Amino acid sequence: MTEPTPATIDVVAIGNAIVDVIARSDDAFLAQHALNKGAMQLIDAATAEQLYADMGSAIETSGGSAANTLAGLAALGKNCGFIGQVNDDQLGAVFAHDIRALGVRFATAPLSGDEPTARCLILVTPDAQRTMNTFLGASQYLPATAIDADLIRSAGILYLEGYLWDPQQPRAAMRAAIAAARDAGRRVAFTLSDNFVIDRHRADFLDLIDQGLIDILFSNEGEVQSLVQIDDFDAAVAQVAAKVPVLVSTRSEKGVIAVVDGIRYEVPAAPVAQVVDTTGAGDLFAAGFLAAHIDGRGVEDCLKLGAAAAAEVISHYGARPEADLNRIRDALFG
Amino acid sequence: MTEPTPATIDVVAIGNAIVDVIARSDDAFLAQHALNKGAMQLIDAATAEQLYADMGSAIETSGGSAANTLAGLAALGKNCGFIGQVNDDQLGAVFAHDIRALGVRFATAPLSGDEPTARCLILVTPDAQRTMNTFLGASQYLPATAIDADLIRSAGILYLEGYLWDPQQPRAAMRAAIAAARDAGRRVAFTLSDNFVIDRHRADFLDLIDQGLIDILFSNEGEVQSLVQIDDFDAAVAQVAAKVPVLVSTRSEKGVIAVVDGIRYEVPAAPVAQVVDTTGAGDLFAAGFLAAHIDGRGVEDCLKLGAAAAAEVISHYGARPEADLNRIRDALFG
Lengths: 334, 334
Hints:
2 copies of one chain form a homodimer. The first copy, chain A, has helices spanning 27-32, 45-54, 65-75, 90-101, 149-154, 168-183, 195-210, 221-228, 233-241, 281-294, 299-313, 325-333; strands at 9-14, 18-24, 40-42, 59-62, 80-83, 105-106, 118-124, 130-135, 155-161, 187-191, 216-220, 246-250, 256-260, 263-267. By secondary structure, chain A is of the alpha/beta class. Chain A has one domain (9-17, 64-113, 137-333): UDP-N-acetylmuramoyl-L-alanine:D-glutamate ligase. A 9-stranded mixed β-sheet of chain A has the order 6-5-1-9-10-11-12-13-14, with helices on both faces. Chains A and B meet through strand 4 and helix 4 of A and strand 4 and helix 4 of B.
């Protein structure tokens, strides 16, 4: 490991480059299509086509878990870069436009050819729960050569999403990125993303943690329990927290917790007038947490800004912030 | 003219088949790009590309003036058909999916080739005004052969948007549709769309009216004045109303009026907690008005349902209804 030079950008993230297709739905529709409410499932092109044909009128917004987190970080004034794979089709242009319009560096060359830009068909039920059906398309072909090692080395934090562990090529790319980041003395943040993702990759995730490659681990209640296969939240947190410098876990309306250097911090959920669509809650929580962390704030402030950013994004459709997050931060911290 | 047989569908509309690309903006951005606030301008591919690159992160939703009106009519239980031209690209698939998902018949064959599906780059300023920049792409190539005369004859009302008078081919197609509708004893509704459109086609529009080809004319305050080039609203209304059986005019916060068989009706604007984006206000007003009209309600009720539908659509981003319009109608009429 070389002596770290000062980082010139705050966060570089590697994630799925996805356009979200959001429609309202009811529970009967989920049941008819055998969809697992609240979860993310990967679907193939034929299933995507059929489900899209069956679902209601939709809106399209750029999405992707890590990309949503960067959208929040950029909105909070952080200097960010994104690495992810789109096709050179119309939805790829939408994704690239939106992330660049936020000021995020995004230079991954689009693919040509038959694998279209990834889409996530998101069904939002009246209880504001989102059920995600992801057609990965081009996103699963992010090659290791797309990892700009200079960019990785220049960023204080490398942020990775568990969702992208599913496809083989991006997984290899992320392993290369982790190596580059560690070699440059940078920190690595990782989000566990989803229980079913953990089921598919538990051994890998535990191995990354055991090797000390993860500095900041983002999770929700179910994920931290699933990771170590312990049904009790506090026991699961204790076990995972012993292995990572910073463990963060969101618990929906029960608030958010972090364990840093063995000390547990807890903050209640931020109030929301009406929860409309929970898509992006975890992503924006991570954005708020990291933004405050980069600003050198204490753990409780990090949790508070995370909770406030999550509260903003669940108050409307779509997983990217609509309100001015700086104003929300200033209201919190003065 | 043959004796009319009973209509089997309520409304068939011909309009631009557009995907809206909506971003927030400020007045300075409009000034820098020499954009005429509140209006619609046609832009070419190069301008569309440059403006898109400059504008902020966006959301995409299906739009198009007449198509938005059908979305409202379909939501209110009316049986509708749409004729409009998309390309067989991703945005064309989005447009087709969304209008079919609403239950609207849409069978216009997509174009192949280089003219992409139309996009409207909509900049919404903090005062909720929308400034529209339309790249017509495929939409301007709607051929007269796309007019399904059987469909036109089967519908009680043919609904046309003034915006589509700009491109030559759709204008010819609409003239053919008017002829088919009149021949079948159907009524023709027409919306004037925009002051600048009227400036370009005033003689044509007045000619259609003078020939008695328009049964229901939708307008806003500025448009009805522009049509007859009279600055006084009441005088302009009186002059136009003498030539069309039903004249309807919206006046933003000043409410809505209709003149039917020489009698003027007036209804105040429906209350809105927060006006977010005025895109689609006129389109949804027309939807509510026509839905109540088809149900055989009196003119005041038509105005009320129009105003209520408009109030719904301006309370959020995007020009298609999000709330349940049937519930809004039932709250009005019991």
